[in-house]
Amino acid sequence: MKSVQVLLAFALLALASTFASASEPSPLQDICVATNNLKDGVFVNGKFCKDPKLAKPEDFYYSGLDKAGDTGNRLGFVVTPVNVEQIPGLNTLGISAVRVDYAPYGQNPPHTHPRATEILTVLEGTLYVGFVTSNQLNNTLIAKVLNKGDVFVFPIGMVHFQFNIGKTNAVAIAALSSQNPGVITIANSVFGADPAINPDFLARAFQLDVKVVKSLQKKFWMNSN
To answer: With contact defined as beta carbons under 8 Å apart, do 213 and 191 qualify?
Structure first.
């Protein structure tokens, strides 16, 4: 009987170990529809790897984050990404970076990164930044004013923002925990969807007059990421 109990304990430990080690890779694209037809299979979760013997320094290098981006748009900000598209060597490493430039009173509007946590460092200027927790935590705003040298973290998937509250340009560098973190700008997604979301539905969802919704849907929603 004792030997049976020992075998059962080992079996349970083995099963627990299997569950603990089994996990799916983080998705690296917005959608990946399953297909049984191999001829239709065009996306993979990540990128194909070339022969490591053919790797060269340029595969791990990017130049240009010292250059300010053009903030001459209605929101007064621009993002310069450095992800796997710019540095092929980032493939499978789970990390990327961005430079964000802000004109005076420019803002990076509420958005999320569906595949990454972000850690942001202010290089110049003063930013008001924050994120909003999920419904489970009562949509609590966690925000702070940052100055040069200050660092702030935006947890994965949380809606967050940055706003230059100073009279001079501001610059920040951020690292993200994905080679392709993705970005969903809330206003773009809701009011700039193509085809458009039914305005009557949005009016009720946001408790707005339908005319206001239709006006918002006609506006040009910029893509700065």
So the answer is: yes
188 CB-near residues (< 8 Å, 6+ apart) = 221, 222, 223
- Residue 165, CA atoms < 13 Å, CB-side half-sphere: 11
pLDDT at 215 over 50: yes
- Let me know if 115 is exposed, middle or buried by CB neighbors in 10 A (0-12, 13-18, 19+): buried
CB 92 within 8 A of CB 46: yes
Three-state DSSP state, 162: strand
Dihedral angle, C-alpha 173, 224, 106, 215, nearest 10 ° = -150
The answer to whether residues 71 and 106 touch, using CB atoms and an 8 Å cutoff, is: yes
Residue 221 has pLDDT above 90, yes or no: no
Q: Of 180, 182, 174, 185, which Cα lies nearest the Cα of 118?
A: 174
- pTM comes to 0.84
> What are the φ/ψ torsions at residue 126 (nearest 5 degrees)?
-130, 125
